[in-house]
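stage 2 :: seqdesign
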C-alpha cells in the first residue's frame, strides 16, 4: 500500500499550529466582503488554468485532463448510436436508469456498495457540491475544511455565506483528524465536514486508513455529515488503494463523483451518492436547479460505459502516472535545496513548499513572464488569511511528459536565480 509521501523532509508537523485547529476563520464579515474575495480567487485560478496555448508556453496550472486521454472516438460512436436508435435521447425525461446502474458498478471500484436510488445525477461534481450544501446548510452556518481546499468549493458555498473552521493538512497523512476531533469536542457543530480522502486538490495527499476510520466515527458520534469530494478518486497510480469514506459509512457521508477527469469535463456529468434519508429531497433540488442532466449525454455516457470502457481506466491511469513520474523526477533534478513537495498517489496535482523567503504569488507571476510556465499559488486555495505564502500547486495532468520536464527545469532555474538575488 502506498500513501502520499514527501520526497524531502515533511512540509509541516502533524500537530496543529497554535491557533490553527479550532479556529473559526473570519473569512467574511459583511455581505459584500464575503463574496468579493472568492470571486477574485476563482477568476485568478480560471485565468491561469485557461490560458490559451502558445508556442513555448507550458501550463502546469489547470486541472484539465490530457486531450489524448479523452476517449473522443469511443464517445462519438456512443453518441451516434444513441442518436440513431433512442428517440428519448432528445427529450425531457427522468434520470436515465442504466447510467445510474453503471455508476453503482463504478462505485464498487471505490469500495462503495450503493443502490441506484441513492445516486443523483448532477452537472459535474461542482453541482454535486452545490446541492450537498443546499441540503445540509442553513444560511451563515459553519463548514469545516482543511486550510487549503478546491477553490470551487467556496464558490459553491457562497450563496450560504458560510464561516469556515479549518484544520491543517499533513502532507504525509492528509487531513488533521485530531484537529477535527478537537473542534467537535469543544462544541463546534459545522453543517458538514468537507473532505478529499483521496487524490487531494490542491495538496496531492491521501488520508491514511486510520484517519479515515476516525473521521467517519467522529461524524457519526457528533452527528456532523461529511461531504466527500472524490472527483479524482478513480485516478490512482500506485497499486494499493483505500476505500472511500462513503464505503465506511453510508449514513453520514455524502459522496460526490465526476466523469470530468476520467472521461471529459465537457460532458458536465457527475453524481452524488446520498444517504437514503436525503435522496428524495436532493432530487427536488436538482429539478429546481435545471430539471435534469442532458438526456443525450446521460445515454451516450451509459452506452460508452457499457461498450467502450474496457481498459479505459487502466490507459488513463498509465498516462497520468507517466506524467506524474516525469514531474517528480524533474522536481528532484531541478528544484533548489529547501524545496519540498508531496508525492501524489493519484489525481492531478503536486503541492510544493518553496524554500523560506520565497513568495509563491510573486514566483507565479515571474514564472509566467520569464519562464513561460503557468503554475498556481497556494493563496488561491487558502480558506483562511494567514496561510503560508510559499506554497505552489503544480498540475501534471495536461502537458506532455517532455513539456513537464522542460517546464519544471525552467521553474527550477527561476527559483535558483531568485534565491541568489533575494
Ligand atoms: C476537487 C474538485 N471538486 C470538484 C470539481 C468540479 O468538477 P466537475 O467538472 O465534475 O464539475 C473539481 C474540478 O476541477 C475539483 O478539482
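stage 2 :: out
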Amino acid at each position: 500500500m502506498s500513501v502520499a509521501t514527501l520526497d524531502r523532509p515533511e512540509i509541516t508537523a502533524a500537530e496543529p499550529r497554535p491557533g490553527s485547529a479550532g479556529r473559526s476563520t473570519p473569512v467574511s464579515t459583511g455581505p459584500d466582503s464575503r463574496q468579493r474575495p472568492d470571486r477574485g480567487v476563482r477568476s485568478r485560478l480560471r485565468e491561469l488554468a485557461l490560458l490559451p496555448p502558445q508556442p513555448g508556453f507550458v501550463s502546469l496550472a489547470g486541472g484539465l485532463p490530457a486531450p489524448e486521454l479523452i476517449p473522443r472516438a469511443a464517445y462519438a460512436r456512443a453518441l451516434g448510436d444513441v442518436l440513431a436508435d433512442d428517440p428519448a435521447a432528445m427529450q425531457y425525461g427522468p434520470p436515465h436508469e442504466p447510467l445510474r446502474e453503471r455508476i453503482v458498478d463504478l462505485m464498487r471500484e471505490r469500495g462503495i456498495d450503493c443502490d441506484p436510488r441513492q445516486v443523483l445525477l448532477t452537472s459535474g461534481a461542482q453541482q454535486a457540491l452545490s446541492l450537498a450544501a443546499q441540503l445540509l446548510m442553513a444560511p451563515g452556518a459553519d463548514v469545516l475544511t482543511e486550510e487549503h481546499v478546491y477553490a470551487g468549493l467556496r464558490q459553491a458555498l457562497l450563496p450560504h455565506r458560510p464561516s469556515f473552521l479549518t484544520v491543517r493538512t499533513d502532507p504525509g497523512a492528509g487531513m488533521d483528524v485530531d484537529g477535527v476531533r478537537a473542534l467537535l469536542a469543544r462544541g463546534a457543530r459545522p453543517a458538514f465536514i468537507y473532505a478529499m480522502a483521496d487524490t487531494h486538490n490542491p495538496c496531492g495527499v491521501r488520508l491514511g486508513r486510520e484517519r479515515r476510520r476516525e473521521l467517519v466515527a467522529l461524524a457519526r458520534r457528533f452527528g456532523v455529515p461529511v461531504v466527500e469530494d472524490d472527483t479524482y478518486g478513480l485516478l490512482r497510480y500506485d497499486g494499493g488503494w483505500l476505500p472511500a469514506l462513503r464505503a465506511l459509512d453510508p449514513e453520514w457521508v455524502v459522496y460526490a463523483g465526476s466523469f470530468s477527469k476520467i472521461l471529459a469535463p465537457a460532458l458536465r456529468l457527475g453524481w452524488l451518492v446520498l444517504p437514503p434519508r436525503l435522496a428524495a429531497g436532493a432530487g427536488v433540488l436538482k429539478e429546481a436547479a435545471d430539471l435534469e442532466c442532458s438526456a443525450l449525454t446521460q445515454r451516450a455516457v451509459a452506452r460508452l460505459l457499457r461498450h467502450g470502457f474496457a481498459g479505459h481506466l487502466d490507459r488513463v491511469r498509465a498516462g497520468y502516472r507517466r506524467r506524474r513520474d516525469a514531474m517528480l523526477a524533474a522536481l528532484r533534478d531541478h528544484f533548489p535545496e529547501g524545496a519540498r513537495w508531496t508525492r501524489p498517489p493519484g489525481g492531478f496535482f503536486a503541492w510544493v513548499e518553496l524554500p523560506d523567503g520565497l513568495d509563491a504569488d510573486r514566483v507565479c507571476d515571474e514564472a509566467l513572464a520569464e519562464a513561460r510556465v503557468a503554475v498556481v499559488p497556494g493563496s488561491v486555495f487558502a480558506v483562511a488569511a494567514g496561510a503560508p505564502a510559499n506554497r505552489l500547486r503544480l498540475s501534471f495532468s495536461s502537458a506532455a511528459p517532455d513539456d513537464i520536464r522542460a517546464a519544471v527545469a525552467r521553474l527550477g532555474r527561476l527559483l535558483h536565480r531568485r534565491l541568489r538575488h533575494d
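stage 3 :: structure notes
- The pocket of pyridoxal-5'-phosphate is lined by residues 63, 124-126, 150, 152, 201, 229, 231, 258, 260, 265, 270 (CB under 6 Å).
- The chain has 13 helices and 17 strands.
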